[in-house]
Specification:
There is one protein chain. By secondary structure, the protein is mainly alpha-helical. It has a domain at 63-223. It is built from 15 helices and no strands. It has helices spanning 3-25, 47-61, 66-78, 87-122, 135-140, 156-166, 168-178, 180-195, 207-220, 225-231, 235-250, 256-280, 288-316, 322-350, 352-358. Helix 8 (180-195) crosses helix 12 (256-280) and helix 13 packs across helix 14. It starts with a helix and ends in a 5-residue tail after the last helix.
Length: 363
Amino acid sequence: MNIQELQSKTVDWLRFPLIVGVVFIHTKYFAPEAVPLADINYANLSTEDIGVIISSIFSIFIPCVAVPLFFMISGYFFFYKLNMWNKSVYLDKIKSRIKTLVIPYLLWNTIALAGIIYLNYNIPNETIIEKNNSLFFYIRGYIIHTGFTPYLQPMWFIRDLIILSIGSPILYFLIKKMNYYIIFVFLLIYILFYILSINPIFMIFGPSLFYFSLGAFLSINNLNMIEEARKIKSICEMICVISLFLFLYLKGNGYWKYITPFYIISGIIVTLKIVSYLYENQKIRLNPFLSKASFFVFAVHELFLLNSWKTIFIKLNEPLTALSGITGYFVVPILTIFSALIIFYLLQRYFPKITSILTGSRS
């Protein structure tokens, strides 16, 4: 297996585990009397404290690498095998992204908006969205509804990809003219984004831009992601291990944000090295179904599945204890992912055209 094929197989294999990470990002430890990680006394740990530590590791520390790596992969393959750049190439890229990004983005957010309106008008005391708003208000929600996200929160990732795709000629020009210097500029902006605690609404100018640009830089310069990751020796592994201890010690007091960018970059490199090694040595195999289902799981998990399974679990385990909270923390996302896969399988089998549209032809 040559290095290009290994890169392709590694990326395909990673799609589903990274989506699992995204699901865990949106899963919270819901046991009673749980305190924030910053308030935990390690000398006197309770079961609730252990639950908080576990959920912090699996919902914050480990999966925080997932979305940045997705951005890097997206930037890489946007410019993959690109020999020249002109208006025709740009229009072809945008035309392709309309199918793979824009249409699914609009459809899933419309489904989410319909659900929000239904809850607003049919469930007492629900005020998810103000009633009798202007048309502009509803249109704006497709871009920013609450905080920095659209109606369907995980779709902020797709929104940023759409914006970055539109601005790709500028990025291509900057990389060609400034080479790796522009990546250092974007890295500095990215680090400042964390240090200055800039509003997440401007994430497109920080993490999103940096990782997409990093992938674009590698691709434009015909550099293989796996090959480049392997050139970096064990320092990244050391940074990841040290970061875990610092995360548990510093989380919540402000200093962790200074370490986060360096940990995520190291985490991406370590992830690519480990997965490519395992795949190359036939320790893991690609499951085409899981790879194809990844986008659907990403889109549907927070639409209704995650909260539905959480509600069911809590009802079945009342009164909730710290131990059942830990159990539920793992059971709920697993059931969410499993049910999403079943729905995807049924849709793909009986409504393949609809599934193809919803997933941007990824099925």
